[in-house]
Each structure stands twice: as C-alpha cells, then as structure tokens.
Amino acid sequence: MNIMNMPITGLKGIGPKKAEQFYKKGINCVYDLLSYLPSRYEDRGTVSFIENLTVGESVCIKAKITSPVRVMRIRKSLTITRTTVADDSGEIILCWYNQKYIDKALKYDEYYTFFGKISKGRSGLEMVNPVLESMDKEGKYTGKIIPVYHGIMPISQKGFISAQETALEQGGSVLVSFLPEALEKKYNLLNVYDATKNIHFPENEEMLIKARERFAFEKFFHFQTAMRMLRSKEKEKGIIFSDVNTDEFEKNLPFNLTNAQKKVIDAVKMDLISGKASKRLVQGDVGSGKTVVAVIMAYLAVKNGYQATIMAPTEILAKQHFITFSKMLPDLKIECLTSSVTKKNKELICEKLSKGEIDILIGTHALIEDNVVFDAEDSFILEDLLADE
C-alpha cells in the first residue's frame, strides 16, 4: 500500500480515539494530512528584549525565572499560574490560564525561551499563555518559524504539528510529484519533498517563499491542464459570424480608438468570423477602454442577427454600462436587468427578450435565472469580471 494512502492511524501517536478528531476535519490518510497547509506562520526565531515589548505583539524572549511560581484557584473552572521573568533589559509577568502543569515545568533562577502575546496588566506588561521551552530543548516550538493551522480544534496546535512531523518522517520520502520533472527544472522549482517540508516547517523565509511558489505553480498547472481537457471536448465549431464593417461606427465615436484597442477588436473579429468556438479575456488598466471593445463586439453580434448580453458583477456597473451602450448604440434595443427591477418590469423584459425584441441585454447575475430565455439558440455573452470602469 502506498504510504500516502495509509490511514492516519498508521502514524505513530495517533490511535483510533485521536483519529476521530482528524476524520472530522476531512483528514483520513497521510496525504490528506500533508495537504492540510498552514494558514499563517509565527516567527519564533527572532528574540526580543523585554524593554522593547509593546502591547498586542506576539514575541519570543529568553529570560530567567525571578520569582516563585504561584498557582491561584480563582474558581472551580479557572486556575491562573503566574511568575516573573527577566533578561538584561527588564522584567515581565507571565501568566497561564488553566494550565496546572506549568508550575512543575518551571524552575526558579533558570533560563527559558518564551513565545506569547503581550498585554497590559495591573502591574505592567504581561505575556499571556506563552509557549515555553527550556534552553537545552529549544528548537521544537521556539527558535524558528512555526506553522499555525486554522480550524483544527479540538486538536491542539502542538498535536497537529507533531502529526505533520510524523507524516513527513514516515511518508516524505515517497511523496509523488504532480509536476513533470522537466517543468521543475525549467522553472527552478523545489522538488515535492523539499516544498512539502518547507511549507509546513520552513528552514527560513526564503525557503518558505520557494515552497509557496512551487505549490502555486502546481495549482495553476492543474487548472490549465483541466481547462485544456475541457476545451478538447468542446465542439470545434462555434457561432458563425460574417465580417461587419464597423469603420463608420468607429468614426462616430467621440474619441479615437487606440492602436491597442484596434488590435484587440481585429483579433476578436478574426476569431468570430473563423467559425471556431472563441473565448477571450480582455485585460487592461482602469480607463484603458475595455468597455468600448465590448460595445463593438456586441454591435457585431447584433448585426449578424444574434442577441448579445453583458454581465456585470454589480448593479451600479450594470447601470453604467446600460447608459454607455445606449449612448453609443442609439438605434439598437437595449435593456437592463438587475435584482432591483420590479417583478412586473422583469416579466416584461423577459417576454420581449424571448420574442427577439431586445438586441442587447445588460445586467448582473440576474441574467442567468431560469426565466431569462433568449430568442436565438445561440447568444453572444460578454462578462465584465473586473468592475473597474
């Protein structure tokens, strides 16, 4: 059996009872565990001096216990453990809530590494519920970049980190790359083991960045591969357009088209009149003139006997497009359909649309409701994804 498919009960330290907590998080095998990536990281490798601490920050300090450790039972469900620690720059109070074992882990006049969040207490600054390690054992939970996993309760961070370490130890050597080796070499990507190891336990910030790059590349590779497979199944033929001379329309615009706009318009035209299925993404900065390209393509569709529809992500943008299209194409029948349109007007627009009495329909995602039916079997759809004009 491939160890990646091995149930997590096969990992050291995870029995049936503990495994139930992992199952509830959708983690059933070693691969599931290693695929559960950190949501953020804590830099526990940079040590701060106590005199430089500020409220709200999470920091790492190296300090000596300078007062007896006191355990106070406030009520049945609340125990507070407190002590004072100091370095060469100053001292700070440490406190733990409901962690009775802490007093046994600390010895007076000995140094420890602590990591925690700074708060304002009655007697000055306090570090609340800090992680601690003795100087001789430093390096497991302090002294380096530590992963933080989201949504794992009731599994503790320490427990989850320990499970990840065990999974890497037992299964890291047989991790399978989903990228061709040639691509890894061409783009100088980390191999799958180094990337997995450093996404969970970064050697340093540089290696963390490289690990993220590797997995980001892998995601895009999978996406592009899936899209190519889908395209290969699509019909080769698309809507057949005849070329329409738009020179007169372009001359009547209150501005001159840029060379970039003309280039895009010609490229899309060539796609459409080729008879092949076409999907285009027009990308440009704010104010670069993407909308007028959409206007001309919609005009071309209508002149070929089709209906066109423009989908915008917001109602405000849909109404702006409606105004723009209406000014530029005064001879065409244009309507706007959004969720704020009254039921009566929506029914009227849908009726006109189904009868072919609307040339261009502009709107939000209300356009894809079941009752919105176009007259033509095929329709020319333009979707505004960026909402920046």
Short structural summary:
This protein is of the alpha/beta class and 389 residues long. Helix content is 35%, strand content 20%.
Describe the structure.
The chain is α/β, with parallel strands linked by helices and 389 residues long. It has 4 domains: 66 residues, DNA polymerase, domain 1, CATH 1.10.150; 99 residues, Nucleic acid-binding proteins (OB fold (Dihydrolipoamide Acetyltransferase, E2P)), CATH 2.40.50.140; 53 residues, no CATH class; 137 residues, P-loop containing nucleotide triphosphate hydrolases (Rossmann fold), CATH 3.40.50. 35% of the residues lie in helices and 20% in strands. The chain has 12 helices and 12 strands. The chain has a 5-stranded mixed beta barrel with strand order 2-4-5-7-6. It has a 4-stranded parallel sheet with strand order 10-11-9-12, with helices on both faces. A hairpin with a 2-residue loop joins β6 and β7. α6 crosses α7. The radius of gyration is 31 Å and the shape is elongated. The C terminus is likely disordered.
